[in-house]
Design the sequence.
């Protein structure tokens, strides 16, 4: 099989921050929570404005409590995010003797080959295009998600065969939205 594109890089904490930013912070449930928190903040601001015009203003304690709850919930969401990033990094270090994995992704006409380079056990997976469900771009990566909800991330500036732009064009020709 002829390789059309090849991408090789080493995972890092920054990789997991960006990857989890997409998979966690942009997940439907977290987006719903964020929308609720924004709505709560809007209601609180409107209540504050309205209470200034009322003869019996709303309780300051109630408004402070509302703002405090809103801020605490935002903090909880981001604490969860940073804990997930830390957990992902720890899991990888534990399974790879304290190092991040170096990954090599080769794009062939019939699928994508994923391989871990610096690991004791051979990890070699081939994913046919029919198993890829969506393609998402982040600031530094293009992530292909499979049926099994596994993400295969191509780092934009780490193509050793082909270019990032050519790769995106190739994915579009396969019917994926990039």
Sequence:
């Amino acid at each position: 099989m002829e390789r059309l594109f090849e991408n090789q890089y080493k995972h890092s904490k920054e990789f997991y921050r960006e990857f989890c930013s997409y998979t966690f912070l942009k997940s439907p449930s977290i987006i719903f929570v964020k929308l609720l928190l924004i709505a709560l903040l809007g209601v609180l601001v409107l209540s504050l404005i309205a209470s200034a015009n009322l003869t019996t203003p709303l309780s300051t304690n109630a408004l402070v409590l509302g703002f405090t709850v809103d801020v605490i919930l935002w903090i909880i969401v981001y604490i969860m995010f940073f804990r997930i990033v830390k957990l992902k990094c720890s899991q990888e270090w534990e399974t790879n003797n304290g190092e991040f994995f170096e990954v090599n992704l080769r794009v062939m006409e019939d699928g994508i080959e994923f391989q871990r380079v610096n690991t004791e056990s051979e990890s070699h997976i081939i994913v046919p295009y029919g198993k890829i469900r969506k393609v998402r771009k982040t600031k530094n990566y293009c992530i292909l998600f499979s049926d099994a909800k596994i993400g295969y991330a191509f780092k934009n500036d780490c193509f050793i065969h082909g270019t990032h732009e050519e790769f995106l064009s190739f994915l579009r020709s396969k019917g994926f939205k990039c």
